[in-house]
């Protein structure tokens, strides 16, 4: 898919204030600092479109971007950041749960996972919840450039083995790097395919 146009549209704290659900929507979620905003910039080829930061907790709201005037990309705040208070955590959960249940145009959630890490309960639980609620999702293993290909392969195999313990059918997964552009075509082709369904 060629990205001709990518624009920031709105930031909202509530799903009912988000843009009218007139186009297919794809949301990026995962632990704080996993690289959600960076991946949006890599996919759209526009550095600085989504705000990134080396310190976790940068993205705080539901951010809508319009791509090619045909679909929405959504950058969500991350979860699992240790320094966040219980109250903020509960607010995050309320905002995200409401968002996930109230976007009829949400075609797929991209759950981002740092490709260097072994399976973390917070991610596994989040994906289980998506499964229980029947919300379609795929996994994206990020920051592949941070270690060797053989290390990534081994970590990915371990991760998928762990997933296999609770999933009959493994979710589709992608391997990406916002630094090298790895996985860009695969993710964009996937979105193009879903847009056509
Ligand atoms: P929050 O908005 O805080 O939840 O974080 P986020 O998931 O949006 O992460 P963000 O894109 O802001 O990236 C966090 C840090 O990781 C930044 O310092 C990025 O430069 C770095 N980063 C993100 N993706 C990659 C990648 O693929 N490779 C490398 N080497 N660094 C990355
Ligand atoms: Mg972010």
From TrEMBL:
CDD domains: YihA_EngB (cd01876). It holds the Pfam family MMR_HSR1. The keyword Nucleotide-binding applies. The keyword Signal does not apply. Its cofactor is Mg(2+). InterPro entries: G_ENGB_dom (IPR030393), GTP-bd (IPR006073), GTP-bd_ribosome_bio_YsxC (IPR019987), P-loop_NTPase (IPR027417). PROSITE patterns: G_ENGB. Gene3D superfamilies: P-loop containing nucleotide triphosphate hydrolases (3.40.50.300). Residues 22-197 form the EngB-type G domain. Keywords: Cell cycle, Cell division, GTP-binding, Magnesium, Metal-binding, Nucleotide-binding, Septation. Belongs to the TRAFAC class TrmE-Era-EngA-EngB-Septin-like GTPase superfamily. EngB GTPase family. Necessary for normal cell division and for the maintenance of normal septation. PANTHER family: ENGB-TYPE G DOMAIN-CONTAINING PROTEIN (PTHR11649:SF13), MSS1/TRME-RELATED GTP-BINDING PROTEIN (PTHR11649). HAMAP family: GTPase_EngB. This is Probable GTP-binding protein EngB. It comes from Hymenobacter monticola.
């Amino acid at each position: 898919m060629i990205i001709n146009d990518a624009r920031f549209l709105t930031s909202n704290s509530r799903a009912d204030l988000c843009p009218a659900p007139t186009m297919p929507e794809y949301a990026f979620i995962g632990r704080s600092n996993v690289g959600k905003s960076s991946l949006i910039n890599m996919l759209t080829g526009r550095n600085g479109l989504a705000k990134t930061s080396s310190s976790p907790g940068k993205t705080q709201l539901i951010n809508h971007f319009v791509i090619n005037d045909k679909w929405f990309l959504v950058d969500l705040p991350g979860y699992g950041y240790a320094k966040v208070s219980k109250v903020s955590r509960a607010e995050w959960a309320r905002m995200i749960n409401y968002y996930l249940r109230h976007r009829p145009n949400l075609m797929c959630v991209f759950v981002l996972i740092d490709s260097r890490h072994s399976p973390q309960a917070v991610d596994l639980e989040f994906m289980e919840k998506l499964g229980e609620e029947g919300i379609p999702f795929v996994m994206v293993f990020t920051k592949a450039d941070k270690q060797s290909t053989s290390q990534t392969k081994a970590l990915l195999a371990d991760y998928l083995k762990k997933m296999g313990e609770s999933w009959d059918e493994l979710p589709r997964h992608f391997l990406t790097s916002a630094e090298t552009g790895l996985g860009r075509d695969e993710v964009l082709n996937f979105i193009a395919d879903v847009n056509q369904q």
